[in-house]
Amino acid sequence: MASRQFATFEVADQLFGVEVDTVQEVLSYNEYTPVPLAPPAVGGLFNLRGQVIAAVDLRVQLGLARQALEGPVMNVILRGDGEPVSLLVDRIGEVVDLDDDTFEPPPDTLSGPTRELVVGTFKLDGR
Fold first, then answer.
1. β-pairing, 51-57 with 85-89?
2. What pLDDT score does 126 carry?
3. Cα–chain-centroid distance for residue 113?
4. What is the pLDDT of residue 123?
5. CA-CA distance, 107 to 71, in Å (whole number)?
6. Cα(63)–Cα(106) distance, integer angstroms
7. Looking at residues 102-109, what average pLDDT do you find?
8. What's the confidence (pLDDT) of residue 109?
């Protein structure tokens, strides 16, 4: 049975995961530069070892209140086709192995920005 590894994190008490292969690193950071005229979900920019990285506030992307960028904030930095991007999250979780046969597409009732972020879901513990 095939399985995939996911790095998990929480946003507003919701559990999310991204395939481990797409994660560059996970870190806590606290100095963000605002980006005038940027979309609301852009939390700011920060410098990571000489590379400028955009931080996307997943709370705003999901239609929730903006995360306070005071003090350290957890970042999941993903490798994209071009430049890396950081997802601002509330908490970092574990790396989990999930069998492919537990994968389901997002439900039809899921709409809006959440549906755009969700590629699929996994049944956990028989639920």
1. parallel
2. 45
3. 13
4. 54
5. 36
6. 18
7. 73
8. 76
**Residue 80 — φ and ψ, nearest 5°?**
-105, -170
How many whole angstroms separate alpha carbon 49 and alpha carbon 31?
Answer: 13
- Token look-up 């999310």 returns 16
CA proximity to 76, closest of 60, 62, 95 = 95
Reduced to 3 states, what is the DSSP secondary structure of residue 31? coil
CB neighbour class for 113 (10 Å; exposed up to 12, middle 13-18, buried from 19): middle
Single-letter amino acid code for the residue at 77: I
Which two tokens mark 102? Answer: 């537990």
Cα–Cα distance between 93 and 122 in angstroms, integer?
16
DSSP codes, 84-115 = -EEEEESEEEEEEEEEGGGEEPPPTT--HHHH
Q: Six-digit token pair at 95?
A: 């790396």
pLDDT of residue 54: 93
